[in-house]
Amino acid sequence: xxxIDLILDVDTGVDDALALLLAVRHPAMRLRAVTCVAGNAGLxxxxxxxxxxxxxxxxxxxxxxxxxxxxxxxxxxxxxLFHGAGGLGGIAVPQARRRALPHAxxxxxxxxxxxRAPLTLVALGPLTNVALLVRTAPHLARRLARIVFMGGSxxxxxxxxxxxxxxxxxPEALAIVLSAGCPxxxxxxxxxxxxxVTPADVRALADSPKxxxxxxxxxxxxxxxxxxxxxxxAALANTTLGDAGTxxxxxxxxxxxxxxxxxxxxxxxxxxxxxTIVDRRARKGEGDHGGPLPMTEIDVALGIDAAALRRVFMxxxxxx
Length: 320
Ligand code: BDR
Ligand code: CA
Prior knowledge:
Blueprint: E1 4-10, H1 14-25, E2 29-36, H2 43-56, E3 64-66, H3 80-83, H4 104-114, E4 120-123, H5 128-136, H6 138-143, E5 146-150, H7 165-169, H8 171-177, E6 184-187, H9 189-192, E7 196-197, H10 199-206, H11 211-231, E8 239-240, H12 243-251, E9 256-265, E10 276-278, E11 296-304, H13 306-318
Parallel strand pairs: 1-2, 1-4, 2-3, 4-5, 5-6, 6-11
Antiparallel strand pairs: 7-8, 9-10, 9-11
Helix pairs in contact: 1-2, 1-11, 1-12, 4-5, 5-8, 10-11, 12-13
Calcium ion (CA) binds next to loops.
């Protein structure tokens, strides 16, 4: 099995917690560092949640760094409506016995510089930390095998009708990350909701005698309830894996259908701020890709093999 050396940047977050559990438990993943950023919750809560989830997973040796406590320019707007005030929807995780390292960007820089294997950086929150890495150590960012970020969308949004939460949370940061000079994959809302587990999967996790799968079961039950509320339905059979789908797609890249497309992010204006513009035209029309919106060609996820991603998640969590 090919090992993937990984830095995970998180704003934990119910679905970030699932992503952490998957990254820790999957045998293909060598999780080298976890960095925290303000997003779904304030930085202190994100750090506390991240350390707590890693403790449940028995991964107390993985270095954790506390990063940006607010976006580069925008104010910090947490996702209280979806993730609850503390970020984990009221689900308690143990208070970790250790503290985070004082700076995430330092940790990223040192981890990349010390690694012989090219690292994959997976970002699951607003891209503030990653942008700071790109600006402070561009040569190290260019050394990355790939940046995979959960964020953006080629069609609709969730934070606004057209902007996805992580892109909208720090649009300037995403603009900087698009200039990183390494391969980039956008795992956006176009595929985000399609990576799912079934009610039987959630029951199997919740009934496990082990702590990590049991926590995953509780997190997924919460996401299922929130999904019902969002879609205004009385019952929702399957549950979206959220950020954990991004990690599953890194583990099983052939389960992700991507297209190399020009992507830009809207920084000005009110209504459109934070929207990712994905140019899917087969050929240019009257306007070209230049002008006021810089575009970078990146790999945009447009489809997934949902059964394959579900297997990756369930096998790792149940230890098959
Ligand atoms: C993204 O926003 C957050 O609520 C989730 O953790 C995910 O990273 C989805 O738009
Ligand atoms: Ca997230």
